[in-house]
Amino acid sequence: MSKQVLAKQVLAVPGVVIRFAGDSGDGIQLTGDRFTAQTATFGNDLATLPDFPAEIRAPQGTLPGVSAFQLHFADHSVATPGDSADVLIAMNPAALKANLEHLRPAAQIIADSDQFTKRNLTKAGYAANPLEDGSLEAYTVQPVPLTTLTVGALKDFGLSRKDAERSKNMFALGLLSWMYQRPTENTIAHLTTKFAKKPAIMRANIAAFHAGWNFGETTEAFAVSYVVAPAPAPAGTYRNITGNLALAYGLVAGAERAGLPLFLGSYPITPASDILHELSRHKNFGVTTFQAEDEIAAVSAALGASFGGSIGVTTTSGPGIALKAEAVGLAVTLELPLIVVNIQRGGPSTGLPTKTEQADLLQVLHGRNGESPVPVVSASSPGDCFDATLEAVRIALKYRTPVVLLSDGYLANGSEPWRVPQSAALPDLRVEFASGPNGVAADGTPRFLPYLRDPQTLARPWAVPGTPGLEHRIGGLEKADGTGDISYDADNHEFMVRVRQAKVDGIANDLPPTVVDDPTGDARVLVLGWGSTAGPIAAACAEVRAAGGSVARVHLRHLNPFPNDLGEILAAYDRVLVPEMNLGQLALLIRGRYLVDAISHTQVRGTPFKSSDLRNAIEKVISDV
Amino acid sequence: MSESLLSPPLTGPGPRRVPLPLITNPSEGPVKQSAKDFRSAEEVRWCPGCGDYAILAAVQGFLPELGLRRENIVFVSGIGCSSRFPYYMNTYGMHSIHGRAPAIATGLSVSRPDLSVWVITGDGDALSIGGNHLIHALRRNVNLKILLFNNRIYGLTKGQYSPTSEPGKITKSTPMGSLDTPFNPVSLAVGAGAGFVARTVDSDRKHLTSVLRAAAEYEGTALVEIYQNCNIFNDGAFEVLKNPATRDDHLLRLEQGQPLRYGSDGEHTIVRDAAGSLRPAAEAGATEGSDAEVIHDAHAADPALAFALSRLPENGGPTPIGVFRSVARPSYDRQVAEQLEQAVQASGPGDLDALLAGRDHWTV
């Protein structure tokens, strides 16, 4: 492909937000993924937001069936997928209608004019063709007969019209690849591998992709292409990664660094299933994946594996967490390592399966019977899912406790460039199993005390079946301190409840100092966040600062226990603003724990915050101080 | 790319590779042990006269003959009277949560195929709150020995009807009689695709031991229903099967390759009726005699005979005890282990750095 012959005008732009939209059967997510992969390889910084319905194939051409993929890429650091798109690729009228609200004024719209038939317009609720009736005059509209052009390009491939039409997403990808001068090699390679067993389809897709590129290059309708230069980044090897992939890799890496087998018990649930899919491909790492009969069996099997000396993991979303609660409580009292991954989605109940939310914080902290403390770790970006997972594994192994790892639908499916770590530089997570008696029986003989605690961590020994002399019984009934025998003694229960709490609270002594982002040092307002709001908060703070304002920012990795220095940090600011995609769950905890009059700023729309909205919220608080 | 405000960059010591899995069994092979080696120091707290005592004694008495060291044996239970069982065994054990023992044991057994894993459960634990896990363990053929203590009542919650209580049962929660149709655990297990299903009685130590032995020898899920008397809330539930005056006419002892006969002199015959069901000859209008008799075959690949046997009491016949079905199937544990080995053979041991870098990467 001739990329060097560019008679047309080429404009350098610092960054672009592109939104692909079409029917859920149009291959929009694949198109977005491929454009993202090209863009990542090119060296731009980027963030993505797949936005698709829960239905696999909603009725064709209807608004509920619209699937979209938004990508923000730039020659500088990118924190969010972008508040609004500069370019929309609309594969049909419904895609146009559903996505207009996501466009900035004067945005460019490339629409497949072939699909703007009377029938499709009616399905989308248009009385007249918006490409022709002037209703889009605030935008730059470029109708392109994508379907006809694709079918024409493939006329010699011996495909049915229907099969040929299916390649129109690759035609669109080719056109966009020309517009932004993306490298094309890995898309060709991807199509070659993906359709290796269907050579006719492979050739058709590659031909459509080339035809799209050539159309851009030759047609007068597209007069300009754009260059977005690579973004500066620290030296290293990079790849693009989604949150779920990074999380799966974090589990594999955690097990490798602990020298233990990984056992995943999981029941399929959106948006967590990809972790099960990914881990099931890595059996050569000693990873066992077990697709259980239900959520309860999934966590129970993981806990059984932990009892046997594996790193037990279960992955789910909010509804699954509700079902697993009793087994997590058992893990609390058994004091065995267990990783419980919650890829949060909109709730309550089935809620919004494919949309993001962070409304399970209080559930994972408090959604169990009895005093049942569980450490909670959260990830803040797709790539950060890797680090957060290693931290969850570290805490679980060191303190012999279930740990909840919170991610969400945005992190799970969104992607960003990720600097690949060297495995040797990852933390050493080795633990020692108990190997012999650690106490003395009443008659003076050595014996094993399964609930004798490490004085530093308060963790109990991990004695795995198969170890001679350490046979012991554990269970959900209250245990006597030290011996682990059944005990209904009042003093013992009081002690055991408090010592389990103290063990989890003590993890705070094992956390690094909290990083406060306060570049000028004179900010009076602190923005406190957790989870996937990191990107929008960072972008909003950058906008406030660029406009001359001062604002500080802290983002929490650990939600239980909180870092020891958090109270002092909060007290240093006049106002604390807590943006969350729920109705104020962290704000409630902060108020209760620190008596800080935190200002809660919330949104539950199933999508990440827009940085402009957050900027307004921050500036309002600053002006009120 | 997110500029992290979180923990400083992760660091650790130098390169280190640990072969997986680490776990090896340090002490295999036969060893001289006696029943008392399997008794824990915990005081047994069942009601005096409970059938559980006899089962505990039988298990402790028979385990030494398996030649397994006690550290390689694990008992996992759910909730209920029977589920206190692991506390009294000087092996590894877990008294878990209601109904979930088969699921917990599945994770343990699959990840540690070197262990002998036993599940202790009751009729409420296994068939009511934990019914789902039971049927799925059976269909997968996880290498578990499941001892289902069936006393047809909820004992620990003080006397409500259970999923195996007879229709019309008057209990604290059913003052006008239970409306539920009970489960027949053997029928359920056969229907779920179990490879090994047996039934025995708490008071018959010899029979109980022989069934436990057969279960232990089976590779895969072995379900053993044990009729167990709750002398407090459902006393005498199985009296007709135990009383010397009545048992011969109500109990059918299954023996491999032998005709299905019962009665004090084996005078009663079981025949197959036109619909394929098993019935006493008298009930079916057939004459007692050898020409119509049915030979027991627990190894039959087709589960029809095992299922028909399980329905005998519902068809006016005696209650069979013994091994209904014992058919070799590859265990789930073995197959999981084989896939792990195949993956290493196909792709080599995992290379973490190669995995993390992936195919589409670039260098700055």
TrEMBL record, chain A:
Pyruvate flavodoxin/ferredoxin oxidoreductase pyrimidine binding domain boundaries: 262-481
Keyword RNA-binding: no
Keyword Oxidoreductase recorded: yes
Family matches, as CDD domains: TPP_PYR_PFOR_IOR-alpha_like
Record's keyword terms, sorted: Oxidoreductase
Residues covered by the Pyruvate/ketoisovalerate oxidoreductase catalytic domain: 25-212
Superkingdom of source: Bacteria
InterPro entries, per the entry: 2-oxoacid/accept_OxRdtase_asu, Pyruvate:ferred/Flavod_OxRd, Pyrv/ketoisovalerate_OxRed_cat, Pyrv_Fd/Flavodoxin_OxRdtase_N, Pyrv_flavodox_OxRed_cen, THDP-binding, Transketo_C/PFOR_II
Alphabetical list of NCBIfam families matching this protein: OAFO_sf
Name of the protein: 2-oxoacid:acceptor oxidoreductase subunit alpha
Organism: Streptomyces albipurpureus
UniProtKB/TrEMBL annotation, chain B:
Domain Thiamine pyrophosphate enzyme TPP-binding: 79-226
Region span, Disordered: 1-33
Keywords: Oxidoreductase
A Pfam family reported for this protein in Swiss-Prot or TrEMBL: TPP_enzyme_C
CDD domains: TPP_OGFOR
Stored InterPro entries: 2-oxoacid:Fd_oxidoreductase, THDP-binding, TPP_enzyme_TPP-bd
Gene3D superfamilies in the record: 3.40.50.970
Protein name per its UniProtKB record: 2-oxoacid:ferredoxin oxidoreductase subunit beta
Organism: Streptomyces albipurpureus
